[in-house]
Specification:
The structure holds 2 protein chains of 2 kinds. Chain A is mainly alpha-helical. Chain A is built from 10 helices and no strands. In chain A, helix 8 packs parallel to helix 10. The longest helix of chain A has 30 residues. The radius of gyration of chain A is 19 Å and the shape is elongated. By secondary structure, chain B is mostly helical. Chain B has 8 helices and no strands. Classes of the chains: A mainly alpha, B mainly alpha. At the A-B interface, helix 9 and helix 10 of A face helix 5 and helix 6 of B.
Chain lengths: 235, 244
């Protein structure tokens, strides 16, 4: 559309750039569904392993359900984090982001948010099914979902740091897990604690608030750190 | 002050100074550790509950202290390296990591040896033990990242970012784990008010901590010298030094 050409000369605002990147990432993923499905299938499969390995009795599974849900969510997030920057760094798009003059922190924030929509949110949405299969009462499902939503979003931000630090490394994906796992352990503690309280029928407000505060910390600091790491990785 | 700072950052200068300082640190550490061992193993009375078994505290507590101290040292050195682009600071961080991991490992092993007679088990999933274990994982992650990046500059900077992220996380991990489970006896030295440990036991312990610290500096200086030699192997001053 030639009539709008002068508008292109005006610099794109940072917020608009972030929004465009967000939409682009979601669109790209929508066209390759299998990539979105991978972490989700992984999550469901890992949770299926536990009844097979431990015992099929719901009364016993109910005791380990919080741990199973959260360990599976953690592993699935780590697995997914590998793809966060991979294709963009392989085809050079990441360098264009750095050169674009837009704040890299904001761009990475948008990318991570899109990444969570594609990998974390489906996991949160399917978690009630998995929780019920593990014997959780229906009254606990909302708390479990809220906890997983807060936790997987924080995990996406931690994963962004890990992905940025391991750009272009050969053994990147395993290394990423090694780097991020110790950092994610507090999440696991608060997350499974919240699910445990919910399954026992008690208020899980305490651990949920702690999860929320970790999320706030991650949103504020992780994109900055990831941006610094991306610049180092592309040097 | 700043000229001193910049002068210290020059590898040949540092190499010379560190070479001179190392024996001083080494001998002081040895004296302190021997004196503290005598004080702790011979002079100090047995504990009224734990008997002679408590004496492992003279290795355990200083190791645990060093594991944290070295992580913070490493992160501060890494931050200095990132902010002022000082190559020597990166060399310090790189040299500190394996030493810190060793102390963490020592703290875990001596803790297990102490736990067996006291708690009746080698390992419990107690808050302090677990956060010490996670600290060991943080060290491993740091060293793994450094080892898998070929380019030295990039390895320095990327691992520096990781060290800083880790040091922000250490208190979070510590408190989350405490909230999760605690069985470990409360710290005896830093307890609010008067320490719950008698002077004859405390003095050797403090001497041991100081001795471990100074020992760490001696080892660190030696390791950084080696690291500097490796990094500057093509520089003129090393060839001149080798010929002289």
């Amino acid at each position: 559309m030639l009539t709008t050409a002068p508008a292109a000369i005006r610099p794109t605002s940072s917020l608009r750039a972030g929004r465009l990147l967000f939409v682009r990432d979601v669109l790209l993923a929508m066209r390759r569904w299998e990539h979105v499905a991978d972490p989700l299938v992984f999550f469901v499969m890992v949770t299926t392993l536990f009844p097979l390995a431990l015992s099929p009795q719901l009364s016993q599974l109910r005791d380990v359900a919080p741990g199973v849900l959260w360990v599976a969510a953690l592993l699935s997030s780590l697995l997914a984090a590998d793809s966060l920057l991979k294709s963009d760094s392989q085809d050079g798009t990441l360098e264009q982001y750095v050169l674009s003059g837009q704040p890299l922190t904001l761009l990475l924030l948008a990318k991570t948010a899109a990444h969570w929509i594609l990998t974390g949110l489906p996991l949160v949405l399917i978690s009630p099914l998995v929780a019920i299969a593990l014997g959780a009462p229906t009254g606990a499902l909302t708390t479990i979902m809220v906890g997983l939503a807060l936790g997987t979003l924080t995990l996406s931000f931690l994963g962004a740091i890990g992905a940025a630090l391991t750009i272009g490394l050969r053994r990147g994906s395993l290394l990423l897990s090694l780097l991020v796992m110790p950092l994610a352990m507090p999440l696991l503690i608060f997350g499974s604690r919240s699910a445990e309280l919910a399954i026992a029928g008690e208020s899980a407000a305490g651990p949920l608030y702690l999860l929320a505060s970790l999320l706030v910390l991650a949103i504020t600091l992780a994109p900055l750190t990831a941006a610094a790491a991306v610049r180092i990785g592309l040097d | 002050m700043w000229t001193w700072f910049h002068k210290l950052a020059s590898p040949p200068h540092f190499y010379r100074i560190a070479g001179k300082l190392t024996p001083w640190f080494g001998w002081t550490a040895l004296l302190l550790i021997v004196a503290a061992l005598y004080g702790g193993l011979v002079l100090a009375p047995p504990d009224y509950q734990q008997g002679d078994a408590f004496r492992i505290i003279y290795v355990h507590a200083p190791s645990a202290w060093m594991s944290l101290f070295i992580y913070v040292t490493m992160a501060v050195a890494a931050a200095i390296g990132l902010i002022w682009r000082m190559k020597l600071a990166h060399a310090v961080a790189a040299s500190a990591a394996p030493v810190g991991a060793s102390f963490t490992f020592a703290a875990l092993v001596t803790g297990a040896l102490w736990g067996q007679p006291m708690w009746g088990t080698w390992w419990v999933w107690d808050a302090r033990l677990t956060s010490e274990l996670i600290l060991l994982f943080l060290y491993f992650g740091y060293m793994a990242l450094r080892a898998s990046i070929e380019d030295l500059q990039r390895a320095d900077k990327a691992s520096a970012v990781l060290a800083i992220v880790g040091v922000i996380n250490v208190p979070i991990i510590h408190y989350s784990v405490i909230w999760w489970n605690t069985l470990h006896q409360a710290s005896t030295v830093t307890k609010m008010g008067a320490p719950s440990i008698s002077t004859s036991m405390l003095v050797p312990l403090l001497m041991m901590i100081l001795g471990f610290n100074i020992y760490f500096f001696a080892v660190l200086l030696t390791r950084v010298r080696g690291e500097v030699l490796r990094r500057e192997r093509n520089a003129g001053w090393i060839r001149e030094g080798a010929q002289a």
